[in-house]
Amino acid sequence: MSDLLSLSSITPRSWQGYAALALLAGAILLWPLVDAAPGYGVAIAALIFLLLLLAIEADNFTPAIGVVLLFLGAHGAAWLLLAGITGNEGTARASFYLLLAAAWLLAWRCVTVLSALRPTSRWAATALRLIIPTIFGAWILIIWEAVTRGAGIPFILLPPPSAIGVRIANSLPVLAADVRQTIFKAVIFGYVVGSGAGFLAAIAADRVPFLRRGLLPIGNMVSALPIIGVAPIMVMWFGFDWQSKAAVVIIMTFFPMLVNTVAGLAASGHMERDLMRTYASSYWQTLFKLRLPAAAPFIFNALKINSTLALIGAIVAEFFGTPVVGMGFRISTEVGRMNIDMVWAEIAVAALAGSVFYGVVALFERAVTFWHPSVRGG
Amino acid sequence: MTGTSPAVVSASKLGLTFQTSDGPVQALSNVDLTIGKGEFVSFIGPSGCGKTTLLRVIADLEKPTSGTISVNGMTPEQARQCRAYGYVFQAAALYPWRTIERNVALPLEIMGLSKAEQAARIKRTLDLVNLGGFEQKYPWQLSGGMQQRASIARALAFDADLLLMDEPFGALDEIVRDHLNQQLLELWERTNKTICFVTHSIPEAVYLSTRIIVMSPRPGRVSDVIESTLPKQRPLDIRETPEFLAIAARVRDGLRAGHSYED
């Protein structure tokens, strides 16, 4: 093979490059890639080798060209490997995984080079901040896809991400209805009411000493209630529709907000409070002008914790009775019908929605607590 | 001096005992004090001599446990409710979420002044401390000296006649400190305020004050009172004159007498 000849002239510059070269040699020794009859065409196999060698050689170019070669080589080879497994599912041999590992190592090298870049323009820095985690996430999917299809893992145990993607694309109306029911009704309502109530309770506890002694232990106890015990009771109280799920979310989000706000209200310094005293400032003036702004980082912590708690609470609560729509309902029924790809589709949508929810809260946090050392950086 | 003008602060037999877990600690004992209008009085002494505590008692941030004290002829609490004094702390204590302008506006907002009145006073006091042009900056964008100047502007903004300053320049380097001392003297002369100034620096106390009150610890008490004979106009190089050095020597003697190192 012509590739074998060129192996001698390739000079890697990183340990990932050397390791990838060794893996390539191993792949040739353990040839072929799959056991099945059609297998990989010689041209495709040669192209995979060429792309990987190109990526190994990339470090000998300038960083800008090198990183492009690394990216194209590693991901082109991965793409060809995944495309070729179609029709050969479950027959992959060690050679297939060695090539995959080589491509993964080169993608690692690509991210290392990218991380070391210090772009001068603002949008290049932003693009870089997005590209690096994207490559990282893409490789989780690539390895997942390659292992499930290469080893022929049963669909029920773990479907490949491509099948989940197809299921999402084909079930958009159902998924949209579930998101509307679970997130836009139960989660948002419960989150706003639960966090709001926790906040107001914290202020009340701060203002009235006996509440501080009475309310905090009770709030603590409520937060310790097991959600799978509370959810069926809420369904009995508030019915099958989203109101009972919102009630569960309220119970789950109340306490983190209460505790964090109470801690935040104690966060302002002695000197700052003495200053307000020298102005003969009233309780409410001190609260609004000093203590609440100082508590903002704590309050936003609670809002971020609650954004994920609310989603978990609403989905789990739907397991205990719901109309025939909702993310938790869908997961529980589709598991029973062995439609695991639909379960994974709901999981993916929930993860996406949770990340967006969290991201929006984090953006608000940056805007409001711009003055805090953790945000302004120093 | 004190006989001709009405007393702004007058204390007699003032004492304060803190109850701590290690038993009572006598922070102030038997302090007699009269401060007249327009005076610049420094309190000097080693740490633990009660100079900050005394200032906090005047400001009604601590309650005395014995003796009497009046501020502007009222109890300290009434004086605080009337916003009779501006207080400058050891650190600037500016609120990081407010710009310099909004920080100076803080006491004015609390006192319910109109927007137009607030704007006029902010401009006037920021000019007074030479911070014009920094209105829109946030405190963390300014140097330590500028932050402390902004906090002085905040204490001046509502025009109280009494200014209480607790080691305001203690955390600053000597060059900045000299500069701010000079500016403070100019400001005092222009505004004719009464200033109580806590410090542990002898040159600072002698340079600034019309009267220096030397304090000593365990229990905190007044050990000497020194009237300054320096003229009101004080350029920085007055600190090399024999008159200045003589006063400084007397303060040092007073500190040494009140603080026996033998024990």
Automatic annotation (TrEMBL), chain A:
GO cellular component: plasma membrane
Main location: membrane
InterPro entries on file: MetI-like, MetI-like_sf
Coiled coil: none
Keyword Transport: yes
Keywords: Cell membrane, Membrane, Transmembrane, Transmembrane helix, Transport
Positions of the ABC transmembrane type-1 domain: 196-368
Membrane association type: Multi-pass membrane protein
One GO term (biological process): transmembrane transport
Localization: Cell membrane
Membrane-spanning parts: 15-33, 40-58, 64-84, 96-117, 123-144, 182-203, 215-240, 246-267, 309-331, 343-364
Name the record gives this protein: Nitrate ABC transporter
Species of provenance: Mesorhizobium temperatum
Upper classification of the organism: Bacteria, Pseudomonadati, Pseudomonadota, Alphaproteobacteria, Hyphomicrobiales
From TrEMBL, chain B:
SMART domains in alphabetical order: AAA
Signal peptide start and end residues: none
Keywords carried by this UniProt record: ATP-binding, Nucleotide-binding, Transport
Database matches in InterPro entries: AAA+_ATPase, ABC_transporter-like_ATP-bd, ABC_transporter-like_CS, ABC_transporter_ATP-bind, P-loop_NTPase
Gene Ontology molecular function, alphabetical: ATP binding; ATP hydrolysis activity
ABC transporter domain ranges (all copies): 9-242
UniProt entry tagged with the keyword Mitochondrion: no
Name of a matching Pfam family: ABC_tran
Keyword set includes ATP-binding: yes
Family recorded in the similarity comment: Belongs to the ABC transporter superfamily.
Protein known as: Sulfonate ABC transporter ATP-binding protein
UniProt organism field: Mesorhizobium temperatum
Classification lineage: Bacteria, Pseudomonadati, Pseudomonadota, Alphaproteobacteria, Hyphomicrobiales
